[in-house]
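INTERNAL AUDIT FORM
Audit reference: QA-55
Scope: verify that the stored structure record matches its stored sequence.
Auditor: D.O.
Record contents follow.
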Amino acid sequence: MITNVTERRLLVTSDPHVGNLFVNARAQLVRLLDRGASEGYALCINGDGIDVLHTSLARITTEGAALLRELRRISEKTTIYYTVGNHDLILEHYLGDWGGIRLVPFLNVHSGTQRIRIEHGHLYDHFMMNHPDLQPALTRFIGWCCRFYPPWYTLEEKIKTWRYRRLPRLFGRQNGPAPPRDDESPSFIEAAEEIAQRGFDSVIFGHTHHVDDLPLNRNRSRYYNTGCWARNPHYLTIDDGVIALKPWLAT
């Protein structure tokens, strides 16, 4: 399994949650990946590409299989990297190279003169790490509620904002300066700062579902997040080390 790679051009997105009962992102995700491949980009799905939590057996079987067929087709034109997230954690059992699809826990990318770290970011979610039993229960509860009223799925976004940002403030657990945005968690910024100190010029996460392009305080590095396909999907292009964060407009 190779996690250190050199790519002149790389397209990155995260959290399409294919198979999710309340998100229908597969067709648009495939269109983005197809376009990226046609423009000469290698591709990276930065975690939660599929969703084995908010799903059903029938849904994940049909949607997951359809996505895999598309990825295999696209991988004939370019390399596809897939970093494992928390909603697709089962894929850790299959880490390795699958032809043109490379399943990895994280990715260290050299592009131009830049060194870039890409990982899903769930390991820096303090709530998830400190409450490993409560997190799955909360996820199942939200999924159960959304089966009755799918628009309630957006409630999870509000809960994430509350537990990432406001809960640490309430209990006095926020260290260091507040992030520039009220919906960004200090734990992810702190993690990005620490990773950047290892010699990375940019750090790219997913997981939080918040789109971000922020400077890191302790050095000249930057933090990026491509958000989630449940709302306002974004992607990054890397061209000889130059990173651009862009919205994906459905076509």
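Auditor finding: record pair retrieved intact. The chain is about 30% helix and 25% strand.
Action required: none
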